[in-house]
Amino acid sequence: MYAIIATGGKQYKVSEGDVIDVEKLNAEVGNEVTFDQVLAVSSDDALKVASDVANATVTATVMDQGRAKKVVVYHFKPKTGNHKKNGHRQAYTRVKIEKINN
């Protein structure tokens, strides 16, 4: 059984027991979060979408709050001596999927 959830502007295919990194959530480590924006749920025999999954939720436990590796952003304008080097580290929340509720 798997579900497709949307959080942080992205979509994730998750199963029970999966550990995924999502955009930063406002939750403490060890707390339970519920994803209520479920797009599809697949059981052994059929795929349910649209109004069939209107009340479906996915429950997960927060395992970690962290920041990804640094990405270097380099702006360069030729012939003018203009250049600028910036770095960015995206914040994430690592969650473990506990249960898919139909």
Overview of this protein structure:
The structure is a single chain. The protein is mainly β. It has no helices and 10 strands. It has strands spanning 2-7, 10-15, 19-23, 32-35, 38-42, 47-49, 57-67, 71-77, 82-88, 91-101.
**Widest sheet: strand ordering:** 2-1-5-6
Rg over CA atoms: 19 Å
Quote the beta fraction: over 45%
Helix content: under 10%
Task: Give the ordered list of helices and strands.
Answer: EEEEEEEEEE
What descriptive keywords fit this protein?
single chain; 102 residues; four-stranded antiparallel β-sheet; 0% helix; mainly beta
Produce a short descriptive summary.
The protein has 102 residues and is mainly beta.
